[in-house]
Write a structure and sequence with these properties.
It contains 7 helices and 8 strands, in the order βββββαααββαβααα. The protein is an alpha+beta fold and 244 residues long. Helix 3 runs parallel beside helix 6. The structure holds zinc ion. Zinc ion (ZN) binds next to helix 4.
């Protein structure tokens, strides 16, 4: 018998009476659990809940078998639907990336803190999502410093981004002969990038619209693809953007 702590990220009905739960755990990264007969039990099993799980080792198809569970924390309620969408986006992100077993607890702690933080956020939850993305980049060894010009290495507010995700400052942009590879960042996008590490203090004051939301989503996802050699598509991020 194995004990682990985890948050259910997906719950899929399976046969007449069972579920398959996708779970991010503290010590095993992402695992799948079959909860046999659980749909007919009085005891609920819910997404966005953190549980202590009692499991037996997988026999078939890599599925752990659920024996018992005990609720630790409910991460399923948020002040409004846009914050809830931000929580969904964070869960989907954690589900999509490859988490090394040795770092499972760091990623788990990040998700847990992210969801807990969002439960108190009523405005601009997407800013917290971008901050989480920035933290994940760091954990993955992708060096994304939103306050640094990648060309002259000056601490500044970058004004443009290249095709391969490098950020450059105003001076560097002016010195270049050929700038067609660079897209200029809007002033709001510049401000968000500069403030991102402390963005929690600016949730009420930053004004986002659809264009800036898409600009920043594309910027982060492009940066990820160019440094990770694979694209990252998050359905829930498109849903989240609809709120802006
Ligand atoms: Zn520069």
């Amino acid at each position: 018998m194995i004990k682990t702590t985890g948050i259910i990220t997906e719950l899929i009905p399976y046969s007449e009476s069972s579920y398959i739960a996708k779970v991010i755990t503290y010590d095993k990264a992402q695992i799948s659990i079959i909860a046999k007969g659980w749909r007919k039990k009085n005891e609920p099993i819910l997404r966005f809940f953190e549980y202590d799980f009692c499991l037996s080792e997988p026999k078939e198809e890599g599925l752990y078998i659920l024996k018992e569970l005990c609720v630790i924390k409910d991460f399923s309620s948020y002040p409004n639907s846009s914050t809830w969408a931000a929580a969904e986006a964070g869960m989907e992100l954690i589900n999509k990336i490859i988490i090394p077993l040795s770092e499972a607890k760091d990623y788990y702690t990040l998700l847990r803190e992210y969801l807990g933080y969002l439960q108190k956020v009523s405005k601009n939850g997407i800013l917290i999502f971008w901050r989480m993305l920035l933290r994940i980049f760091k954990m993955m060894g992708i060096n994304f410093d939103p306050e640094l010009c990648d060309r002259c290495q000056c601490l500044t507010s970058p004004v443009a981004m290249g095709h391969n995700g490098d950020l450059i400052c105003q001076n560097c942009l002016q010195e270049m002969f050929d700038t067609h590879e660079y897209r200029t960042l809007s002033s709001t996008a510049q401000r968000v990038l500069t403030l991102l590490p402390q963005i929690g203090n600016y949730l009420e004051t930053i004004k986002l619209d659809r264009a800036v939301t898409e600009e920043l989503n594309n910027l982060f996802l492009d940066y990820y693809s160019s440094h990770n050699k694979q694209t990252l598509k998050l359905k829930s991020l498109s849903v989240l953007s609809q709120f802006y």
